[in-house]
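tool_call: predict_structure(chain=1)
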Amino acid sequence: MSAPGRYIVIEGNDGTGKSTQVELLRERLAQHGITSLEFHEPAGTPVADAIRTVIKNGALERQPTTNLLLFTAARHELWHSAAHALAQGQWIVSSRNYYSTLAYQGYGEGLGTHTIIDMTRRFTDERYMTPDCSLILTLDTKTRQQRLSGRGDFAQTDTFEGRDDQFQARIDDAYAAIAADYRIPTIDASATPEKIAEHIWTYVAKLIER
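tool_result:
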């Protein structure tokens, strides 16, 4: 029977380079003979992808609780597949997990964090709630905005990327609080992708050594 896989989460505000680091980390894992799957919450299954389309549509005004329900539904679908893969020995590298919902819906939109945690736990499990390795990418506001401006019209119409500076500042504060509360290491995302990847590897390599 295969040993259970590892669940790695790379978090951070929009524009911090999470997707790039997911790809680089999977390449590094492959060099060590470790196969992995990548997830980009809230997408990853046909149902989750459909829900994501609604979530990312900034033209659809919604209540914060509706966003929580949508994210939780997508997460429930995704984790059903992910948990099975982990049990079969696959490693999972994910950009985002429920920490994003704590940041965006909890701090950004004013929902109670206990409500978010309770709902997430109800529709996933403790394995999801406690990744083997979580890391948060951080970036100063000016650099992050410059990166987002390079995405063109999408960033202006996206539900969260298009929010005002005050909202984005709350998200930055949220990730700082989450890092402190959950003792999650933060990584400066202003360096080159290669240097960031090396920093990430110093944490992930410890999982291989166990």
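agent: Strands lie at 7-12, 36-40, 91-95, 133-138, 186-188. Proceeding to next step.
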